[in-house]
Write a structure and sequence with these properties.
alpha+beta, binds calcium ion, six-stranded antiparallel beta sheet, about 260 residues, globular
């Protein structure tokens, strides 16, 4: 289990706490998820990122680690010169290109890729980018809402009225994603949603290893733990109690002041 805890603050004025856990789960023997969190220690932004890798051998791990490295570096080097939206579009495009490039050079890694969901925060303004089925949620006044729409074949069928929500939840192909970074010809450009972070709000970024096996009501309760580290840990524990069939990542971002 991998844990991080950071604060992002100007004492007395504005404070954000971020904690993340990235766990192998119970059924798998290695972890293809990767997470990153950064505080606003004078850099002008804070961020959180969850990537969920796929591909044979260790390719999924390579893809998600590459994506995290490329994205963090690009944001850090270009934050002052770009708008948040441009930064997110560019960093996803770069990560996509880098993963494809590596896959071409290594036959074992052919077809590797990863999903990504990322939050870039500048004070109380959030930009949330995602490609694939890793998700963002927010609670405000204790009520949970989804802030991302999965890029999956099943979600597209649901949007087009070809399935009911119940059929979609049970669909045998519900894990098939329609966008990701890498994976050759797949679409990679993210959707970017803007949101605000009010005092008391929580945002969760997670991989499908969490969202597939936990109910919204459960997430809504667990995210409200007094301590963000505890919230992230409890969410991952809940997925493991439900069998932990996949790697599990949870990053919780909370504005406490
Ligand atoms: Ca997964």
């Amino acid at each position: 289990m991998y844990k991080l805890f950071k604060r992002s603050h100007q004492p007395g004025l504005f404070e954000v706490q971020i904690a993340g856990v990235c766990d192998t789960g119970i059924a798998r023997d290695h972890n293809e998820d990767a997470i990153a969190i950064q505080e606003d220690d004078g850099r002008g932004y804070y961020l959180a990122l969850v990537c969920d890798g796929m591909g044979g051998h260790n390719a999924g791990e390579i893809a998600s680690a590459l994506a995290v490295g490329v994205i963090l570096e690009h944001v850090e080097e270009n934050f002052r010169q770009r708008s948040p939206r441009e930064l997110l579009l560019e960093s996803f495009a770069l990560a996509n290109a880098r993963i494809d490039q590596q896959a071409e050079q290594n036959p074992d890694a052919r077809g590797m890729g990863c999903t990504a969901v990322m939050l870039l925060g500048v004070k109380d303004k959030l930009w949330i980018a995602h490609a694939g089925d890793s998700r963002g949620y927010r609670t405000r006044n204790g009520t949970l809402e989804r802030i991302t729409v999965d890029h999956t074949m099943v979600q597209e069928m649901l949007d087009n009225g070809l399935l009911t929500a119940e059929q979609a939840a049970m669909h045998p192909y519900r894990g098939r994603i329609s966008r990701c970074l890498g994976h050759a010809k797949n679409r990679s450009e993210p959707d970017i949603d803007e949101a605000t972070l009010d005092k008391g709000d929580n945002v969760l970024l997670c991989s499908d290893g969490l969202s597939d096996v936990t109910k919204d009501e459960e997430i809504q309760v667990l995210i409200g733990q007094r301590d963000v580290r505890m919230a992230a840990r409890r969410l991952v524990e809940a997925a493991n109690k439900a069998g932990g069939p996949d790697n599990i990542s949870a990053v919780v971002i909370r504005r406490v002041m």
